[in-house]
Write a structure and sequence with these properties.
Layout (H helix, E strand, L loop, with lengths): L3 H14 L15 E6 L4 E7 L6 E10 L4 E6 L5 E6 L4 E7 L6 E3 L4 E2 L4 E6 L5 E6 L4 E7 L5 E3 L5 E2 L5 E6 L5 E6 L4 E7 L5 E3 L4 E2 L7 E3 L5 E6 L4 E7 L5 E8 L4 E6 L5 E6 L4 E7 L6 E9 L4 E6 L5 E6 L4 E7 L6 E8 L4 E6 L7 E4 L9 E4 L5 E4 L12 E6 L4 E6 L7 E4 L5 E4 L14 E5 L4 E4 L11 E5 L2 E7 L7 E8 L4 E5 L10 E4 L5 E4 L12 E5 L4 E5 L10 E4 L5 E4 L12 E5 L4 E5 L10 E4 L5 E4 L2 E2 L2 E2 L3 E4 L6
Length: about 650
C-alpha cells in the first residue's frame, strides 16, 4: 500500500492521461461566438466558441432563417450585429446578437441588394456595409444605424467594371475597397468617401482565373488573392492611393478557393479545393513575401472558405462534407495548423464569421514548445528562464533551458538536466536555482538535485544536495537565503518540511515547518520580505485555498486571507505593483482552471481578475521586466500547452 504522496501523484497524472475527447474542461471561458451561413436551407447557425479548444458548441435554438441561398455572413466590429447575404432572394438579412447567449434576433425585413448577392462585409472603421452582387456586376452599399439596421447609400449600387464580383474587402484604414471579379479574373479598386460612396481607382488589375477572395494584412501594405486557375496565391502591394501592384505569384499545385490572413498579419492560409488541403505561409513584414509553413494540411473535402477568428488562435473551414465546420488551432510561434475536430452542421456551410469577445488584458506571445510541470524565473538580465518539465510524448522529460526575450518576443535554448515538478527561483545572488523534482518518468523516484545557473556566463553549478529529496515542492528567496517548502517524497505522506539554503556558504538548515503539510503549491516572496505559500493539496489530498505567510526574521508562520478559489498545480508570481498573482491550476477532479487572483499583503485581501484565455494546470509564471505577467506551458485538456499568454495587470482597486 502506497502512502499519501503516491496517491497525490496518481491524481495529478490522471489529467495527463485524459484526451481532449474526455470530460476534462476549462472553467468559465470568456464568451465568443461564431456564425455560419448555410446555403441550403438558407439559415445562419450560432455557436459558442470554447476559449481553450476553439470548438464551436451550438447555441440552443440558435439556427435562424435568413433567406434562400445564404452564402455569406459577417459580424460588425462591435460584435453586436450579424448580416447575411441571400442569393436566392437578392437581399441582406440583419440580426442583433444577444451578448449573453449569442442567439440572433431579426432586426427587420431583409433589405434589397442586387442580383445574386455573393458576399457581405462590414468596414472595420466606419458604419458601412458592402455587398458584392455577382449577376448584376455591382456593389450595394449601406449605412449602418445605431440599432444595426441598414439604409442603402446614395448612388448605390456601384458598378465594378468586372464580371461576376465575388467579394468585397475593406482596407484596414477604411479608405479603400477591393472587389474580386470571378469571371473576368481581375480586381476593382475603389476609394471610399466620408459618406461610404465608392469611386474607382483606375482600371481593374489583373488577377488569376476564377479568383474569389482577397485578404489584407494588418498594416495595409500587402494584399493576398486566391487564383483557382492556375492554383496560386497572388501577392499585391498597396500604395498610398490604394492602387494595387502585383509582386509575386506562389503556385500551390491545386485550385485555391479561398485565402485568409491572421489578425496579427504574420500568416496567410490558402484553401485548396481540388486537393482538399490548406497551405500556410509566413509573411515577411518588410516585403510581404511568403515562406511556406510546413507541408499542406489535408482537410475535409468540399471546403468552401477558411476564416481565422479574431483572436488569431483558431481557423475554421466551412465545408459541405461533413456539412459543417472544421476547427484548427494555430501554432502562435510557427503558424502551423493542428486539427481540433469537425462539427456537423446544416447543409451547405459556406462561410464563418466570429466575434472577438470582450476586451482582454491577455494576449498571446511566442511559445517554445508543448511542456508542462516546468518552472520559470526572471533573471537579472531581464530574460525569463523556463526549464524542466515533461513533454508527455511518451512521458519524455524536457532537457532544455529556455530563455525568453520579452522585447524581441523570442526564445533561445541550451541544455539543462531533465526533471519535472521541480522548484525554480531567482536567488539573492541573481543566479537561477532549480531544486528537486522527478528525474525520470518513474514517480517512485524523486531527486535531491540542487543546481544554479549563472546567467552572466551561461554555466550550471552543482550545489550541496537538497537534504530531503522531493517533488511537487516550492521555493522562494528571502533574507539572503532560499527556502524550499513542502512537496512529496517517493513514498509516504506529503511533507511539511522547510529547508533553507545559504548560497554564500553552500549549506542547508532546517527551519520551522509548514503549519500543515502541502504539495503542488506556490511560494512567493512579498515586498514585506515574508514568503506567502498558497494553494496546493493538503494532507487529506484535497485542493486547498489556504494561504500562510512565513517571516524569515522570526522563523514563524501565520495565516492570512485564503484564496477565493481552492486549487493545486497553480502558478504564482510577484507583480511589480506588489500584489501576488496566482494563475490557473486544477480542482483535483481532472478539471483545469482559468482563475487569476491577486493578493494585496497590505490589505490582506484577494481580488478576482480576468481569467486566463485557456484554463491550464501545471504551468509556470514569471513577471517580466516590462511588468507583464507571463503564463508559460502547462496542461490544457490533458495535453501540454503550446502557447504562452501574457497578462497586463489592471490598477489596484
Amino acid at each position: 500500500m502506497r502512502g499519501n504522496g503516491k496517491r497525490v501523484l496518481v491524481n495529478v497524472m490522471v489529467v495527463v492521461a485524459l484526451s481532449a475527447t474526455t470530460s476534462l474542461s476549462s472553467v468559465g471561458p470568456r464568451a465568443r461566438f461564431a456564425y455560419v451561413a448555410n446555403a441550403n436551407p438558407g439559415t445562419v447557425s450560432a455557436f459558442t466558441l470554447d476559449a481553450t479548444t476553439g470548438l464551436p458548441t451550438p447555441v440552443p435554438d440558435g439556427v435562424i432563417s435568413a433567406g434562400p441561398g445564404t452564402f455569406s455572413v459577417t459580424v460588425d466590429p462591435s460584435g453586436l450585429f450579424v448580416y447575411a447575404a441571400n442569393q436566392g432572394s437578392n437581399n441582406v438579412s440583419m440580426f442583433a446578437i444577444d451578448p449573453r447567449s449569442g442567439k440572433l434576433t431579426s432586426l427587420s425585413p431583409p433589405i434589397a441588394a442586387g442580383q445574386f448577392p455573393r458576399s457581405v462585409t462590414v468596414s472595420p472603421t466606419d458604419p458601412f456595409v458592402y455587398v458584392a452582387n455577382e449577376v448584376s456586376n455591382d456593389v450595394s452599399g449601406y449605412s449602418m444605424a445605431a440599432d444595426g439596421t441598414l439604409v442603402e447609400l446614395l448612388n448605390s449600387p456601384f458598378p465594378t467594371a468586372g464580371l461576376h464580383p465575388w467579394s468585397v474587402t475593406i482596407h484596414p484604414t477604411g479608405r479603400f475597397a477591393y472587389v474580386v471579379n470571378h469571371d473576368s479574373g481581375d480586381i476593382s479598386a475603389f476609394a471610399i468617401d466620408s459618406a461610404g460612396g465608392l469611386s474607382p481607382i483606375g482600371s481593374p488589375v489583373s488577377a488569376g482565373g476564377n479568383s474569389r477572395f482577397m485578404a489584407i494584412e494588418q498594416t495595409g501594405q500587402f494584399a493576398y488573392v486566391n487564383s483557382e486557375l492556375p492554383g496560386a496565391v497572388l501577392l499585391y502591394a498597396i500604395d498610398a492611393t490604394g492602387a494595387l501592384t502585383l509582386i509575386q505569384s506562389y503556385p500551390t499545385g491545386g485550385d485555391v478557393y479561398n485565402v485568409a490572413v491572421d489578425p496579427s498579419g504574420r500568416f496567410v492560409y490558402a484553401l485548396d479545393g481540388a486537393f482538399a488541403n490548406i497551405t500556410g505561409y509566413r509573411i515577411d513584414p518588410a516585403t510581404g513575401r511568403l515562406t511556406q509553413v510546413g507541408p499542406p494540411l489535408t482537410t475535409m473535402a468540399g471546403g468552401n472558405s477558411i476564416t481565422v477568428e479574431l483572436t488569431g488562435r483558431f481557423a475554421f473551414v466551412a465545408t459541405q462534407n461533413p456539412r459543417g465546420v472544421v476547427t484548427y488551432k494555430i501554432d502562435q510561434a510557427t503558424g502551423e495548423l493542428k486539427l481540433v475536430g469537425p462539427l456537423p452542421g446544416q447543409n451547405g456551410a459556406q462561410s464563418v464569421a466570429t466575434t472577438k469577445g470582450p476586451p482582454s488584458n491577455w494576449e498571446g506571445r511566442n511559445s517554445f514548445g508543448t511542456i508542462a510541470y516546468l518552472g520559470a524565473a526572471t533573471g537579472p538580465d531581464g530574460l525569463i528562464y523556463a526549464m524542466g518539465g515533461a513533454i508527455l510524448a511518451g512521458c519524455a522529460n524536457n532537457d532544455r533551458l529556455w530563455a525568453y526575450d520579452t522585447v524581441a518576443d523570442s526564445w533561445t535554448d541550451s541544455v539543462k538536466p531533465a526533471g519535472w515538478n521541480l522548484a525554480v527561483v531567482t536567488g539573492p545572488d541573481g543566479r537561477i536555482y532549480a531544486f528537486g523534482g522527478f528525474p525520470t518518468c518513474d514517480q517512485d523516484v524523486v531527486t535531491d538535485r540542487a543546481e544554479a545557473y549563472d546567467t552572466g556566463v551561461g554555466t550550471w553549478s552543482t550545489l550541496r544536495s537538497l537534504p530531503t529529496p522531493r517533488a511537487g515542492l516550492a521555493a522562494a528567496s528571502a533574507n539572503g537565503r532560499i527556502y524550499v517548502i513542502g512537496g512529496v517524497p517517493a513514498s509516504g505522506p506529503i511533507l511539511s518540511v522547510v529547508e533553507a539554503y545559504n548560497p554564500a556558504t553552500d549549506t542547508w538548515a532546517t527551519v520551522r515547518p509548514l503549519p500543515a503539510a502541502r504539495a503542488y503549491h506556490v511560494a512567493v516572496t512579498g515586498r514585506d520580505g515574508r514568503i506567502y505559500v498558497a494553494g496546493g493539496v493538503d494532507d487529506s489530498l484535497r485542493p486547498t485555498n489556504s494561504v500562510v505567510a512565513y517571516d524569515p526574521g522570526t522563523d514563524t508562520w501565520s495565516n492570512v486571507a485564503p484564496m477565493p478559489t481552492a486549487r493545486e498545480r497553480l502558478a504564482g508570481t510577484l507583480g511589480q505593483d506588489g500584489r501576488i498573482y496566482t494563475l490557473g491550476g486544477g480542482n483535483g477532479n481532472t478539471v483545469v482552471l482559468n482563475n487569476v487572483e491577486a493578493y494585496d499583503p497590505g490589505a490582506d485581501a484577494w481580488t478576482a481578475l480576468e481569467v486566463l484565455p485557456s484554463g491550464r494546470g501545471s504551468l509556470a509564471a514569471a513577471t517580466g521586466p516590462d511588468g507583464l505577467i507571463y503564463a508559460i506551458g502547462g496542461l490544457i485538456l490533458g495535453d501540454p500547452a503550446d502557447s504562452m499568454e501574457v497578462f497586463t495587470p489592471p490598477p489596484s482597486p
